[in-house]
Amino acid sequence: MAYLITHFWPGATEDQYRATVATVHPADGLPAGQTYHAAGPTEGGILITAVWDSKAAADDFVQNTLIAAMPIAGGFSGHPEERAAEIINEQKA
């Protein structure tokens, strides 16, 4: 079942986001299992939304790629506020 995850990085900047993504995402697209990625600045930090083909794929990326790479020079520090859910409705244009 598809899986939705959001990360809010308090106090983060666009430059930190770009440095982090450059390190943890492949140069030619999305990590294995990720089908959608969107991010942008919001009050107090950066908000990231990703859709994965499964919870297992999301968990693997967060633990074995994202957190394992921390700290990233010029990137995010600490841990994000995370929300996640199995997707019950996904609509596309």
* Share of helical residues: 25-40%
Q: What class would the helix/strand composition place it in? A: alpha+beta
Radius of gyration over all CA atoms, rounded? 13 Å
Strand order of the largest sheet: 2-3-1-4
For the record, the count of structural domains works out to 1
Oligomeric nature of the chains: single chain
Could you give the distance between the termini? 20 Å
Under CATH at level 1, the class stands as Alpha Beta
CATH-level-2 architecture: 2-Layer Sandwich
The CATH topology label is Alpha-Beta Plaits
Number of DSSP helices?
Answer: 2
Q: So what's the overall shape?
A: globular
The major beta sheet can be summarized as: 4 strands, antiparallel
Give the percentage of residues in beta strands.
25-35%
Question: Whole-number average pLDDT?
Answer: 93
Order of helices and strands: EHEEHE
Number of strands: 4
Uncertain residue ranges: none
Secondary-structure map with pairings?
Elements lengths: L2 E8 L3 H11 L9 E9 L2 E8 L2 H15 L11 E6 L7
Describe this structure in words.
This protein is α+β, with helices and mostly antiparallel strands and 93 residues long. It has a single domain (3-86), classed as Alpha-Beta Plaits. The chain is built from two helices and four strands; from the N terminus they run βαββαβ. Strands 2-3-1-4 form a four-stranded antiparallel beta sheet. Strand 2 and strand 3 (45-52) form a beta hairpin. The longest helix is centred in the middle third of the chain and has 15 residues, at 55-69.
